[in-house]
Amino acid sequence: MAPMLSTAGPIHWILDFDGTITKRDTLNTLVNISAQNRPDSNVLAEWKRVSQAYMDDYKATMQNALPKDTHRPSTIASEKLILGITEEVERRSLDRVSESRLFAGLTGTILYEGARRAVETGEVQLRDGFQDFFRHVQDKQHAFHILSVNWSQRFIAACLHASGTVLPQKLSSVYSNELDGTEESMPSSGAIVPSSGNDSLIVSSRNKLSVLSHLREHEQTPIVYIGDSWTDFECLLAADLGICIRDDPMTSTQRTLAESLERVGVKCAHLEEINRIDHSAVFWTRDFHEVSAWLESPALAK
């Protein structure tokens, strides 16, 4: 990590989507789109079932990995081991979702229209300052990618488009997962598969790090990574500058990440302190207004 990153030169921005670009997680919105598309189905009941199965699996796995009297990890290496264990929980969850056919019948058009409605009603909202920040990125012709464990690349792009944000490379700017069939304009089987351009599913911190490393090989400019949750842990540390999004009060996912960083000794000061900190660190910010303020700081534009 390099806190004294110049904002005058090129920057490669890699951002998480849910809870980072958006104010809150959008998974329930994706489920609601499927329920609205099949009003006579049991989509919501199935979603409740697979959600409970996920929570039960996660709790049992964590209790097995970290018994009650065991100390939580205190090093980055040991934290990564725990994150690796949770990856298997996420994969089992995706298998349950695919088998339940929760998203069967959805098409790219249905996803687009559902995302548009969600933005219009305020169900999906971009974080404050994102659009001004994104205009700055475009004006400077900086590289920009979204890296997400979200289940639909097309849904992400549709939410942004409906919010007035058009990605320069459209879908190729988004690394996530996809609903099977939607890439061929066919009704989805409901299976969650790798999106176009990806060789494997993105469900974990390790998967995200693998994509970031791949992008770094092709774009030899400093990387700024922005995220809000535990799955962003490894990317925040691997980037030239890592920025955490934090609300006041913090959400449960933000708090998990904050506790993780603190536990392994990674300091996390507010972004406005970046030119006064003499050690490597991850920084935090409330919104993209504060990121833009950093970008416009004359102290760093050298």
From TrEMBL:
SUPFAM superfamilies: HAD-like (SSF56784). It comes from the Eukaryota. This is HAD-like protein. It comes from Massarina eburnea CBS 473.64.
